[in-house]
Amino acid sequence: MNSRKILALAAAAAAVFGIASVSNVASAQAAKPQAGVPFSATINITEELSPDGTLCPLVGTISGTGIATQLGRVAVRSMDCVQPRGATFTFSSLQVVLTAANGDQIFVNYLGTLNTLTGAIQGTYTIADGTGRFDHATGGGTMVGSEDISGFPRAAGQLELKGTISY
């Protein structure tokens, strides 16, 4: 029996007996919800600070790119409410979007502090939702990094997120 007939018989048997192909098994595994898997991201950011005049003395418009587990390469967009308090700036955002190359998104909230003397950033983040395979995503963790604000109102830095994600 030649190899074409063997492959045809194998395909017919798989169809009759419901045997899944390797690619179907891989697709099914990729589609399974993930519960509490590690999540980390390294993101290079630029920020433009401007006076707001409302509850936020300064608004930081942030953009950046990086790498995140579960997403791969990401683009990041955020608007921060920044409160200067001496040598420490507190910041928070309810509108952080991490977008993967395929268009899937994760929506994140975060809050933290920036020490303006050292540039050190510390904070926490919460994953609030997402789109695509991250629809209804949850999770959270810690955020550390640094930001150079010597070119105020422009700044640049790097953030590291570490925690978990369920989706």
Describe the structure.
- The protein has 167 residues and is mainly beta.
- The protein folds into two domains: 1-32; 34-166, Beta Barrel (AOC barrel-like).
- Helices cover 15% and strands 59% of the residues.
- It has helices spanning 3-17, 22-31; strands spanning 37-51, 58-68, 72-85, 88-100, 105-115, 120-130, 138-148, 154-166.
- The chain has an eight-stranded antiparallel beta barrel.
- The longest helix is centred in the N-terminal third of the chain and has 15 residues, at 3-17.
- 24% of the residues are buried.
Instruction: Please tell me the total number of domains.
Output: 2
Shape: elongated
CA gyration radius, whole angstroms: 22 Å
CATH class of the largest domain: Mainly Beta
Poorly predicted tracts of residues? 1-29
Number of helices: 2
CATH architecture level-2 label of the largest domain: Beta Barrel
Question: What is the residue-averaged pLDDT?
Answer: 85
Give, in spatial order, the strands making up the sheet with the most strands: 1-2-3-4-5-6-7-8
Taken in chain order, the helices and strands follow as HHEEEEEEEE
Stated plainly, the CATH topology of the largest domain is called AOC barrel-like
Distance between the termini: 48 Å
Biggest beta-sheet profile = 8 strands, antiparallel, barrel
Binned, the helix content reads: 10-25%
Strand segment count = 8
Q: What fraction strand?
A: over 45%
Could you say which structural class the secondary elements and strand pairing correspond to?
mainly beta
